[in-house]
Amino acid sequence: AIRGKDSATFSEVEKILKELPSNIYLKDAEGKYVFATHYWHHLDTEGDPNWTIRGKTDLEIRKDKDNALKAMEADRRILESGEGTEYIIEENEDGIRDFLQLIKRPVYDEDGRVSGIIALINNITDYQLLKMELEKRAKTDALTGLLNKSASQDLIRMMVANYRKEGEHSALLMIDADRFKSINDTFGHAEGDRVLAEMGRIIKN
Hints:
The chain is of the alpha+beta class. 43% of the residues lie in helices and 20% in strands.
């Protein structure tokens, strides 16, 4: 594929792959792009309609330089070890938050040497945001917005473990709502809920 990148056949394959929602790309043995089926807003194309990704590295084209360096380091390990990898990155560019799943595999030449990388990028933003929301709901009290009992116990166990392992100090404060029962009895449970929600806001702040 790398040798045939300027042939009509390669162009036809490239055009077909553009019909898929995932971004499929190929890099050579130096970690430079041979082609990519999609140009997303995460790339710095300089507004040039004739801009091409070919021959460029992640550091040259990506707006998020930290993720660019992460990608290049992952590529280096693949090219050296011949082992593929998968990971998820978060992009926050142009006021848009995206979660991208990257799946990378080595490409071999006729002699069995790693000659490049073939990769797939899936936009999993909807899935990841839903997962984060479900995890938040599982750990958070809906009324106060604070950690629920189970999540609090997990956090305390983690902090105790860190103290034993790293010697990190922490403090645990026990806070009681004085005469809270009288609020429920006098004004009703709806008003009591509002008091608890306000307490939660104050504690978080």
